[in-house]
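User: Sequence recovery, please. Input:
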């Protein structure tokens, strides 16, 4: 069976090689070209209607899950940046952690500013976990 199929395909290839008219006689011309079809599509869908190609971001209304997702991404970026900066500063700056803590204490900052700074440090960790 396989030998007969191979023989048939071989004969067809030989005929096509010696007389290319056999391949061409089965070809039929297309009614339209791809460019004409593309122009028809764009004229029908884009030019005929007065609407944008894609919706603008302003069509979306803010929702709680969207805002929480954006805050989650923002706190993740802030945590990554904070940990990286703390690690780099611990390696590169002279002195130790206690000396910098004493420097902050010597500035005599008010309690409102201290609590705000503590909240700004803890909020990303609290929200992100």
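Assistant: Recovered sequence (129 residues):
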């Amino acid at each position: 069976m396989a030998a007969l199929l191979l023989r048939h395909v071989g004969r067809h290839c030989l005929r096509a090689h010696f007389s290319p008219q056999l391949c061409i006689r089965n070809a039929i011309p297309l009614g339209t070209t791809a460019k004409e079809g593309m122009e028809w599509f764009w004229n029908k869908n884009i030019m005929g209607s007065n609407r944008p190609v894609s919706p603008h971001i302003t069509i979306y209304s803010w929702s709680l899950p969207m805002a929480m997702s954006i805050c989650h991404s923002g706190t993740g970026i802030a945590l990554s940046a904070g940990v990286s900066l703390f690690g780099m500063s611990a390696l590169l700056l002279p002195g130790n952690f206690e000396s910098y803590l004493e420097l902050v204490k010597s500035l005599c900052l008010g309690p409102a500013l201290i609590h705000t700074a503590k909240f700004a440090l803890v909020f990303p960790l609290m929200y992100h976990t």
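The mean pLDDT is 81.
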